[in-house]
Specification:
The structure holds two protein chains of two kinds.
Chain A: H1 4-23, H2 28-48, H3 51-75, H4 81-107, H5 132-145, H6 176-185, H7 187-202, H8 210-236, H9 241-267, H10 285-294, E1 297-300, H11 303-308, H12 315-320, H13 329-342, E2 348-351, H14 352-366, H15 370-376
Parallel strand pairs in A: 1-2
Chain B: H1 2-12, H2 17-24, E1 33-44, E2 47-58, E3 66-73, E4 76-83, E5 93-101, H3 108-115, E6 121-128, E7 140-146, H4 150-161, E8 168-175, H5 184-193, E9 197-203, H6 204-207, H7 212-218, E10 226-231, H8 233-245, E11 252-256, E12 269-273, E13 278-282, H9 288-294, E14 312-317, E15 320-322, E16 328-329, E17 334-337, E18 341-343, E19 347-349
Parallel strand pairs in B: 7-8, 7-10, 8-9, 10-11, 12-19
Antiparallel strand pairs in B: 1-2, 1-6, 2-5, 3-4, 3-6, 12-13, 14-17, 14-19, 15-16, 15-18
The chains are: A mainly alpha, B alpha/beta.
Bound molecules: FE2/S2 (inorganic) cluster.
Chain lengths: ~375, ~350
């Protein structure tokens, strides 16, 4: 006869085996200890937030707006090649700053503590094809909650790419290097379309094909973006209209490629781990932290690089504390690293070139079925 | 102007024209009301009158109404409500007066009295409030002010001094000491020059609290007057009782100057979900998210563990307790994460 307690025991042992993927050979006490230490880091920062942090984000917001204004103004003369290049550069920089250090982080609620309605996750809308509402849904909730859980975290390959051998191989993966080049160029539309389609597929009772409906809902968000970049500003540029249009297009593509690069380096370099839904069932807070640690990778670089990557170069710290202000990640990083060292946990990091190379190399390797890969002795 | 702004928005999308206008001058904001401090007159060491010039004209307010004033304290926006103390204008105005008493708690009032200076920008909520003089109203008014509760009454008296046929007004002004009474000289002046106005001072450190018999002595005809009372909660409760006993509650108007939130350790309260018209018991240890869901409210949610901020809804009133840290917080209109906050007293959420 199995009593209720017996059943509980069995459950626990099962869980423990499954969780081994996350906890490695750490004891439950050690996992809890790691959780407590990380909680303490968080509490330290939270109690220290104040004027300097506010000044940082407000200064960046001003910089973004001046960059945007000067970029748009310069492009009025974009018929002259130097103006075209300068304007495109300014505008691309503005868009990158806005999407990464501002939009992404503000929508995470990193600055909600200031209670300024102009810099708040509930009001911010960004310069991107995905609406803030949809983004918060798919990114803040799905991606950050279910980081690297195959089948749950849609960012694992975005339904198109095979980024880990734990994913089944499909024929279309053969071309995934090319696919990824396209995704990089049109990243904002790619993600937007992908999210919209997933949302529409969920609505089983709505009429029409989900892809058509997705296109329609996508247009609602894309329209003001398109009008601004491809109609209004070119028209305002008068004789520079065609060149302003190409400049705006180029700026958007530069932004897309940059964000794509940073984001892919955050989760897809070698040594990053993936998990299955069974492995994380009944996960504790400490285990959640461990999964974030092992599922993310940092990029090394200068302070300017960190700002331009929205501090996603501190992807590990960002995943541990998604709603702590990004300007604080740099000071948290050594503390996190120390914890990892102490408990023998991996802390994946490297310069942009190396991380990016690993991403593309894995994509190429994983485009082949596993048996072919083994025969050719290609590691992923 | 709105046409221009909506056209401009095509260009600034997804930002608003405001986001660029405020780069030039924070007072150019079109979507929210802001003002600049013109001057500060201190009455006692603990209270001052702040004169504010609003960026845009506000509709003529009525005597007795209040405004919201927001300031950033250590980078966090805090809001407090203050009664307007100036005479009610006949036309839209850009000048507002608030008389503020420092409380010593380090909040908005203390900041305004001790640190604010002319030129500072204030965030504002336009005038509102029901505690106002009724048009063509009573022939005789009894006003009772307790401490800083004088401000809305001051506005009423100042307004009456410039009307043609003011009613008889008897103001009983109670404060701890005479030094704590703001605008005393001005009120004395009115009492000496305006036959319709009578002033009685009451120093509670010397005379104790006003009770019913004292009131009957000071103003034997109190039952014939329409009464306006503003002051601390204890005083309002007492006064309310006297009028109720005399079955004259409809002649009494009360302004609860500071709402008293009773936050008891380890206790929750009642949660009101105003947009969905639901109420429910909200225990101290249950996230407001699940309280709402159980009550059938369509609560937004995501991760449910405090990381995604999908569950944020504005808190209308009350305080909440962060279940992770135990910190009690919450300001009117503050967006809060419902998945990690529980009620710390009665709360109202805009969802
Ligand atoms: S539901 Fe994710 S923060 Fe509350």
């Amino acid at each position: 006869m199995i009593t209720a307690t017996d059943e509980l025991m069995i459950d626990l042992t099962d869980d423990r085996e499954l969780h081994a993927a996350i906890t490695r050979d750490l004891t439950a006490e050690q996992v809890d200890e790691i959780g407590r230490r990380l909680d303490a880091i968080r509490a330290d920062i939270e109690s220290d937030l104040g004027e300097d942090d506010a000044a940082y984000i407000r200064r960046l917001i001003r910089i973004h707006r001046y960059l945007e204004i000067s970029g748009r103004a310069t492009l009025m003369a974009s018929i002259l090649p130097p103006a075209w290049f300068a304007g495109t550069g300014l505008l691309a920089t503005a868009k990158i700053l806005e999407n990464m250090e501002l939009g992404h982080n503000i929508m995470h609620g990193q600055w909600d503590w200031m209670r300024d309605p102009a810099i708040h996750s509930s009001t911010w809308e960004w310069d991107n094809a995905i609406s803030a509402v949809d983004w918060k849904q798919s990114h803040n909730d799905m991606h950050h909650m279910w980081t690297n859980v195959i089948g749950k975290d849609k960012d694992v390959g975005y339904g198109r790419l095979r980024v880990t051998s734990d994913q089944e191989w499909r024929k279309d993966h053969l071309f995934q290097v090319g696919t990824n080049v396209l995704i990089a160029l049109f990243f904002e539309y790619g993600i937007s379309m992908y999210d919209a389609t997933l949302e529409e597929i969920k609505k089983t009772d709505a009429p029409g094909h989900p892809r058509i409906r997705a296109l329609r809902s996508l247009w609602g968000k894309v329209k003001p973006q398109v009008i601004k970049d491809y109609v209004a500003f070119p028209l305002l540029s008068g004789i520079s209209a065609p060149t302003t249009l190409t400049a705006n297009f180029t700026a958007n593509v530069i932004r897309n490629v940059w964000t794509h690069t940073i984001i892919f380096c955050g989760h897809f370099p070698d040594d990053v781990e993936y998990f299955t839904e069974e492995e994380i069932e009944g996960e504790s807070k400490g285990e959640w932290y461990l999964r974030q640690l092992m599922g993310s990778a940092n990029i090394e670089g200068s302070p300017l690089f960190h700002t331009m990557s929205g501090n996603l170069s501190h992807q590990i710290e960002h995943h541990l504390f998604p709603d702590l202000p990004s300007n604080r990640y740099a000071e948290i990083a050594p503390q996190v690293r120390e914890i990892c060292l102490e408990f023998g946990l991996p802390y994946t990091t490297g310069p942009l070139g190396k991380q990016s190379f690993e991403v593309w190399r894995s994509l190429a390797a994983l485009s082949l079925p596993d048996d072919v890969r083994e025969r050719l002795r290609i590691a992923s | 102007m709105t046409r221009i702004l909506s056209l401009a928005q095509r260009l600034t999308s997804p930002l608003l024209p405001d986001d660029y206008l405020t780069l030039i001058d924070p007072l150019l904001a079109q979507n929210s009301l802001r003002g600049r401090i013109v001057s500060i007159e201190s009455h006692t060491t603990r209270s001052s009158t702040i004169v504010i010039h609003t960026a845009r004209p506000v509709p003529p307010f009525q005597a007795g109404q209040h405004i919201g004033v927001g300031v950033d304290l250590n980078a966090v926006r805090h809001w407090r409500t203050f009664s307007l103390s100036g005479a009610a204008p006949l036309r839209p105005t850009q000048t507002l007066h608030v008389t503020v008493k420092a409380t010593g708690s380090g909040g908005v009032s203390d900041h305004l009295v001790n640190h604010a200076k002319p030129g500072d920008i204030l965030f504002l909520e336009p005038p509102t409030g029901e505690f106002t003089l009724t048009e063509g109203g009573a022939e005789s008014l009894l006003m009772i002010a307790g401490g800083s509760g004088i401000t809305p009454l001051l506005s009423m008296i100042r307004t009456l001094t410039v009307t043609d046929t003011p009613p008889y007004v008897h103001l009983i002004y109670s404060a701890t000491t005479r030094d704590d009474m703001v605008a005393l000289a001005e009120l004395r002046d009115y009492a000496n020059t305006m036959p319709w106005f009578k002033l009685t001072r009451w120093e509670s450190t010397v005379q104790g609290r006003i009770d019913q018999s004292a009131l009957a002595q000071i103003e034997p005809d109190w039952k014939d007057a329409v009464a306006y009372v503003c002051g601390p909660a204890a005083m309002l409760t007492a006064v309310d009782g006297w009028w109720r006993e005399a079955r004259l509650s409809d002649q009494l108007k009360i302004e609860q100057f500071q709402t008293q939130l009773v936050v008891v350790d380890g206790e929750g309260g009642t949660a009101t979900f105003s947009a969905s018209s639901r109420t429910s018991d909200a225990p101290a240890n249950e996230p407001l998210l699940t309280v709402g869901e159980a009550a059938g409210v369509l609560m937004p949610s995501g991760c449910r563990i405090g990381i995604c901020h999908t569950c944020v809804v504005p808190l209308k009133s009350g305080k909440v307790r962060d279940l992770r840290t135990g910190r009690v917080h919450g300001e009117p209109d503050e967006p809060i994460q419902t998945c990690i906050n529980a009620a710390a007293c009665d709360v109202e959420l805009d969802v």
